Amino acid sequence: MKELLRSTAKRCLRFVIPPRCDLCGDVVFPDECRCEKCEAALRPTGKLCKKCGLPTEDCKCDEHKFRNEYAEFVAPLYFHDSIAKGLIRFKSYGYTELADGYAKEIAKCVRERYDGVAFDCVTYVPMRKLRQWRRGYNQAKLLADAVSAETGVPCEDLLIKTRNTKSQRFSTAKERRVNLHGAFDLPLDKEVADKTVLLIDDVKTTGSTLNECALTLRAYGAKAVYAAAAAVVNENIRNNN
């Protein structure tokens, strides 16, 4: 009887709250979890650069003369079209339910690309407390929590942001690195020595944020830091569309 009531309630809810794509948030047909655009979304494939996560033909790492503090980076999707729309909704417009869809994609990518890596914990890129309070959540933490649930690796709050940084939307790679230098720290009650950490963010553009977070973790003794995001920016795709 309980199952029947639960099933009936779910059917009724479909008429009140229409189902939405788990990546972009658009309304989809009943019993669907993903729209056609997101099903066909462009993904990094083939031989990928371990630093930037892009196919080697799109990689520009040789142009940026700075050391990567994370061992590798992976992302299941490109920040493009419906995926970009979904991540903007997730980050800035309260579509927090999209965390689960992106976490499943990240977890699958991590299992494939980091096969054999034994992670001690998952963590995430932090926000300043005031900014998080204004938004109501940290999208990277929501992703990390969901990735933790998908992988069984515990999520730990290993990083704090120690100062405000200006918006990086229109900054160059060098400007981003300068802007973020020394912006993160480890809380006094946390320990990261000899741990292998999976660091999560929503979108990777130049990698400066992930790099500075990884640098902080390694400075406190982390054995290795591997990075992952829901999507990565590919300038070749963005410029051609």
Please tell me about this protein's structure.
There is one protein chain. The protein starts with a helix and ends with a helix. The model is unreliable at 1-15 and 166-180 (pLDDT under 50). The protein has helices at 2-16, 36-39, 81-92, 98-113, 129-135, 139-151, 173-180, 208-219, 235-239; strands spanning 73-74, 77-78, 121-124, 160-161, 184-185, 196-204, 224-232. The strands form 2 sheets. Strands 1, 2, 3, 6 and 7 form a 5-stranded parallel beta sheet that branches. The protein has a two-stranded antiparallel ribbon with strand order 4-5. The chain has 241 residues and is an alpha/beta fold. It is globular and about 50 Å long.
What is the count of β-strands? 7
The residue ranges in which pLDDT falls below 50 over 5 or more consecutive positions are 1-15, 166-180
Q: Into which percentage range does the β-strand content fall?
A: 5-15%
- Specify Rg, calculated over alpha carbons: 19 Å
Helical content class = 25-40%
Report mean pLDDT, rounded to a whole number. 86
Structure annotation, total helices? 9
Q: Assembly state here?
A: single chain
Class by SSE composition: alpha/beta
How far apart the termini lie comes to: 53 Å
